[in-house]
Amino acid sequence: MSTIASISTAPGIGGIGIIRMSGEKCFEILRKIFYPKNPYKIEEIKGYNIKYGYIKENEKIIDEVLVSFFKAPHSYTAENMCEINSHGGIVVMREILDICLKNGAELAQPGEFTKRAFLNGRMDLSQAEAVIDIINAKSNREAKEGIKQLEGFLTQEINKIKQKILDIMTNIEVSIDYPEYDVEEMQENEIKDKLTNIKEELEKLEKSFDNGKIIKEGIKTAIIGRPNAGKSSLLNAILKEDRAIVTEYEGTTRDTIEEFVNINGIPLKLIDTAGIRNTENAVEKIGIEKSKKIAKEADLSLVIIDGSKPLEKEDIEILKIVNPNKTIIILNKIDLGLIIKDENEELKDFKNKVEISALNKEGINELYNKITQMFNLNQINLDNEIIITNERHKNIIKKAINNVEKAIDSLNNNMSVDIVAISIKEVLSNLGEITGDEAGEEIINEIFARFCLGK
Ligand code: GDP
To answer: Which of 179, 198, 246, 289 has its Cα between 20 and 30 A from that of 163?
Structure first.
């Protein structure tokens, strides 16, 4: 395979920058551009070694660097690799990259290092996907799930199920090859039991995606309330406590700002925070129609009410449009004394209520606990349970479940074993799409295109 190079650290200024190279000619190129302080023969350098020296071009020093050597197959890509640690200036990094390219390397595509790791058999497709998840993680839970997947937990689970299917196949193939020994009643029941067990395991995985989705995408949360109820104060209190990640989509209006905050390790995706910040026009901005739309879109509505005053018409309208099961009523301004109480008639349908002072940041932890309780997040056993966080995996598992059901149906309808075998083989091929041995080139390219440069 060709030799690829790219800058692997984030674009911009940093303490150090890393230029990565991988492929057959990696060391040959290094020999031309890297001048170790203590001369070494590159062939003699062992893998996992770091050497200090200079990158030079036409005998001119470009930068003082440290170069890490990795020898095939013991590297990220399973090829000969090096990482040039330079000073973290964008000009220097570009210059070093250019020198690598001039000497025979090609510019790496996004994700190409990881793609090579996959193509060279160092990781399967689900592990490569975990790498993207770890890089993009917005909460520690999401990162932990990514690490688990990278460690191969999902692969092991899929392989366990594959093995069970292979066992059934062996059973069935005996009867296809020797039709005179028809599948006996007993054997048929046994196959059915095994298939049912496989179906249950797949369903458990499929179901775990509900939690996986929350872990990955965050709980879509809306803060709703009439003007002056305390929306922006609450937003500030939340943002102040937890380091928020603000994502703003390019080319759209400020309306689409989404802010992520970590609540007990789970990201909340706060929607329409731009509307809240824009308090001058709050009345027009967050009209009842708009609130309705936001509430509908949200997994969780935080309805904030100024509890120091009687409910107003607008409060009551808001209470009518939200779904009580997906809502937490926040009685704000406890510091002023609450006159609205829990047992208030208008609030009777809502079981989730907290009392806070957004201004003094009191009661915020109670609010967080309520959120974690509502989504059962404490019950996700991070260490032992396998959680699917990837929609692609979930869709494949769904297909696999369908095929297992088809196989069971065929058995129930006394179809010939060959027909049963077709469905069972489909399940195997479905599962192969997760690990990558059965994934088409198009899918593979699409997955790696989502990576960043240099990974
Ligand atoms: P919004 O219009 O819903 O965004 O409400 P704001 O957050 O702008 O709050 C409206 C007013 O209520 C401001 O003057 C806040 O300082 C005040 N306020 C908000 N929360 C509290 C609270 O817990 N206690 C008190 N005393 N005042 C609050």
So the answer is: 179
